[in-house]
Design a protein that fits this description.
By secondary structure, the chain is mostly beta strands. It has two helices and ten strands; from the N terminus they run ααββββββββββ. The chain has one domain: Sandwich (Immunoglobulin-like). It is 12% helix and 54% strand. The chain has a seven-stranded mixed barrel. The radius of gyration is 21 Å and the shape is globular.
């Protein structure tokens, strides 16, 4: 038996050094508080809200958002211009290192456009965020009702 196994604390220290040297502290991009709404009857669009967190030391740029359950998913931002609320599409969104972006009603949000199938509250949907040239964050949630 080697000295390493006769000294349990030495083994624990050695493993801690190995793990800390790996550099993997989790995914660079995560999502929390995800809420997606089922389209209202007679409508072919809905919205989703969440917070995206950049845990990395570099900026992360979201280039594309998609979902197998919708023909299109777009990042939009609502703003008031001349006392009129207007919505504009954002073709990308950059999160600086260590920051978060909130997607809320009346601000940035996801537009879920043209459901592929009938979608009712309780159905599961997947949102896929493509960032930094090909990395993908996959988020699963259940549709909620707006009523």
């Amino acid at each position: 038996m080697t000295l390493l196994f006769r000294k349990p604390m030495l083994l624990v220290w050695y493993l801690a050094v190995l793990v800390s040297g790996c550099g993997e502290s989790g995914p660079p991009l995560t999502a929390t508080g995800v809420v997606a709404f089922a389209p209202l009857p007679g409508r072919d669009f809905s919205a989703a809200y969440l917070t995206l967190h950049n845990h990395s030391q570099e900026a992360i740029t979201i280039q594309h958002v998609s979902s197998p359950e919708f023909a299109k998913v777009e990042i939009h931002e609502s703003m008031t211009v001349d006392d009129v609320i207007r919505m504009r599409r954002l073709h990308s969104l950059t999160l600086d290192a260590g920051t978060s972006a909130q997607f809320v009603s009346g601000g940035k949000h996801l537009m879920l456009i043209e459901p592929v199938n009938e979608l009712a509250p309780g159905k599961s949907v997947t949102l896929e965020f493509e960032y930094n040239g090909g990395a993908i964050l996959i988020v699963n949630t259940q549709l909620k009702t707006r009523m």
